[in-house]
Design goal:
Strand content: 15-25%
Strand order of the largest sheet: 2-3-1-4-5
CATH class of the largest domain: Alpha Beta
Distance between the termini: 47 Å
CATH architecture of the largest domain: 3-Layer(aba) Sandwich
Number of domains: 2
Largest sheet: 5 strands, parallel
Helix content: 25-40%
CATH topology of the largest domain: Rossmann fold
């Protein structure tokens, strides 16, 4: 079982990191008491979890001023295939982030925010020293942190790792709000006005053949999109012919390429 321990100082980006790992297919939990970590991992292993990520930080260690970092956290059982990533940032950046968020530092008992940051870094030093990866987020944008974690922990890039949702719809019934990309197919000749095609839909081969050519020019752009979950919508006037054809053909091509594809014709029955 692949296990990632996400640790670091408050305000360095642990919440963002755990969200990104969840996108990469990890079962994630934030702020688990460190003493419960062995039992939690055992339960995950029994449940057949392949990838687990947990946040262990100053909150998980308790608030006793004299309490140290548990030894079992710095010497994790390697049979868990565990890795520790530690997120850090310089003091000025942490102060700025706390001022912007107006949140209370977990070690506010230390006095000023500056003192709290110093106290936390001192207590978290043993974890930082044993971490497999230390990431300084002082000058990182969220997208840059995502890229670093993706390179470290996202599964090997292959077609079946991306969930592709393909949707057809009719503009007269409204635009789907969840779509990442919307393509308007109304510039194509409308099969509705071709007598032999009028009562057919994009699920029928004659209609699909009539608009297939355009698809070959746009597929390469989809392949280059660096997303794990993508919704592509094709719209026409009523959602019966052109959009259904394009959605059907795109789904067919990506399924043949090994992608996980879902296909929905939102307005076909309307």
């Amino acid at each position: 079982m692949k296990t990632i321990i996400v640790s670091g100082v408050s305000g360095a980006g642990k919440t963002q990191a755990i969200d990104y790992l969840e996108d990469f297919g990890y079962f994630c939990i934030d702020n688990i008491p460190v003493r419960l970590l062995p039992q939690f991992l055992a339960l995950c292993r029994e449940a057949g979890q392949a990838k687990v990520a947990v946040v262990i930080d100053i909150r998980s260690l308790g608030f006793d001023k004299n309490e140290g970092v548990p030894e079992d956290l710095t010497k994790l059982d390697k049979t868990e295939e565990a890795e520790v990533i530690f997120l850090d940032a310089d003091d000025d950046t942490l102060i700025k982030r706390y001022q912007q968020s107006r949140r209370r530092h977990p070690l506010s008992w230390a006095g000023s925010l500056e003192n709290a940051i110093v106290a936390e870094k001192k207590r978290m030093k043993p974890i930082r020293e044993h971490a497999d990866h230390v990431i300084d987020t002082s000058d990182l944008l969220p997208a840059q942190l995502y890229e670093i974690l993706r390179e470290l922990y996202e599964p090997t890039e292959s077609p079946d790792e991306m969930q592709l949702n393909i949707l057809s719809f009719g503009f007269k019934n409204g635009i789907p709000k969840s779509a990442d990309f919307i393509f308007d197919t109304r510039f194509l000749p409308n099969p509705y006005y071709i007598e032999e095609l009028k009562k057919l839909s994009g699920e029928d081969k004659p209609v699909r053949d009539s608009v297939k050519g355009l698809l070959e020019t746009v597929i390469p752009s989809y392949i280059k999109i660096d997303k794990n979950h993508l919704t592509v919508a094709f719209g026409c006037t009523g959602g019966h012919h052109r959009s259904v054809t394009m959605a059907y053909l795109l789904a067919e091509i990506f399924r043949d390429a090994g992608y996980a594809v879902s296909l929905e014709h939102r307005d076909l029955k309307k």
